Sequence to fold (108 residues):
Amino acid sequence: MNLNITGHHLEITPAIREYTTGKFGKIKRHFDHVIDVQIILSVEKLKQKAEATVHISGKDVFVECDDDNLYAAIDILVDKLDRQVIKHKEKLSGRRHDESGKHTAVAE
Fold:
């Protein structure tokens, strides 16, 4: 998993980089096919903003959030992203191929 962290009007300190890397390990645990992650952390007046684009096999997922605290914004971002990645994983596992090569939905 390639992790690219960028700061906009913000210097990325080693503490922020380590915190972000640790939090994004959660995404890797839930879904192995994460190819690339682009993270942009920015400051806009009194709001701290975090954006992430995750390239997954078959889909790109974009999430953004803002908060008064940058660490809280990163936490919210990871939670939103985790929900979307799990939803994508469930959609992939819900599809099955029969012998003819056509997709069939699994009835539960």
Notes: The chain has one domain: 2-105. The longest helix spans residues 70-94. The chain has two helices and six strands. The chain has a mean pLDDT of 85.
